[in-house]
Amino acid sequence: MAEPEIRELRYFCAVAEELNITRAAERLGMAQPPLSRAMRQLERRLGVDLFDRTGRGLALTQAGEILLKEATGVLGALASAVRRTQHAGLSGRRLVVTAKPGVATQLLLRICERFRADPDAPELRVLVSGFGQQADMVRDGRADLAIAACVDSHDLDTELLRTEPRVAALAVGHKLAEREVLSSADLLTEPAPRWSDPKVVDRDYWLGNPDRPADGPTVRDSAQLLDVVAFGQAVALVPASLAAMNVRPDVTYRPVPDVAPYQTLALWPAGSRSPWIARFVQTALEA
Fold first, then answer.
1. Is the pTM of this model over 0.70?
2. DSSP string, 46-107
3. Is the separation of the CB atoms in 4 and 42 below 8 Å?
4. What DSSP state is assigned to residue 177?
5. Contact by Cβ (8 Å): 129, 100
6. Is 148 in contact with 135 (CB distance < 8 Å)?
7. How far apart are CA 76 and CA 109, in angstroms?
8. Which of 270, 80, 281 is nearest to 156 (CA)?
């Protein structure tokens, strides 16, 4: 049995995700008949039906569902390999660094200013990314380094840059706002915001207590987080610096000394030999 070509896997994923040959062909920038033939050819090559064509539209068979899952992983791994290869070729000329908006980007601005002061430094490209994306961007080659916090970094090298306490963000008028200091136990029955697509280690950290359910609204960034707090829909744990940057008439903050502090880390590929990554991390420590 001949193995599918990368081109065929790309075609298949488009059809499997759209479940419509016309839309998939438009997405791929090709005509519909050759795409239909390519799918039939792929099914003959594999010896299984990937699509159920008996209904009004296309549906994936069990074999098709498995191939979609596996092909998505293969195409993702190929894209990561290409990016890492390109970064390796540009390693002496460009460094890509990412961070999420807020505390991390403020620190990154100071680091970049120092780093660029070196006349021999390579071009520095900064990517502002979303919550929880930084570690994966380093893993798949989209970034050489990241400034991030609270991540599962088992396969990355890290350096602790900064530690600060966390505080509870409460709606003004909330019953807990009457107290000067809170504990994690005080928050157990309070609705907690849910970060979109969090890893378990991140979720437990942001809850402050593994026994606290994440039963509040889903949020994607700190601005949305503080809005749901202001409406009384959740009580959130945030870094003290974020609280200082977001003084609002509808939100108040109280210290919670017994929860784990907020840590800002530098992250980069494990075992990297890049002298410029090492120099950037040293600059970050100095900053």
1. no
2. HTS--EE-SSSS-EE-HHHHHHHHHHHHHHHHHHHHHHHHHHHHTTTTEEEEEE-TTHHHHH
3. yes
4. G
5. yes
6. yes
7. 31
8. 270
The set of residues, in sequence order, having a beta carbon less than 8 Å from that of 166 and lying 6+ positions away, is 208, 237, 238, 239, 240, 256, 259, 260, 261, 262
124/217 Cα distance (integer angstroms):
37
Q: With contact defined as beta carbons under 8 Å apart, do 14 and 62 qualify?
A: no
Are 181 and 223 spatial neighbours (Cβ–Cβ below 8 Å)?
no
pLDDT in tens, 165-212: 999 999 999 999 999 999 999 999 999 988 776 565 567 777 887 788
pLDDT (tens digit per residue) in 264-278: 999 998 888 888 899
Strand positions, DSSP E, 111-245: 123-128, 145-149, 156-164, 166-171, 194-195, 218-219, 236-239
Chain centroid to CA 101: how far? 13
Rounded Cα distance, 257 and 254, in Å: 10
Q: Which two tokens stand for residue 59?
A: 């549906």
Residues in the chain: 287
Could you tell me the two tokens for 114?
């120092």
Tokens found for residue 225: 């987080």
Residue 53 phi, psi (nearest 5): -105, 15
> Residue 101 has which token pair?
């908006």
Q: Nearest to residue 184, comparing CAs of 209, 166, 214?
A: 209
Contact status, residue 126 vs residue 97, Cβ threshold 8 Å: yes
Query: Cα(150)–Cα(203) distance, rounded to whole angstroms?
Result: 9
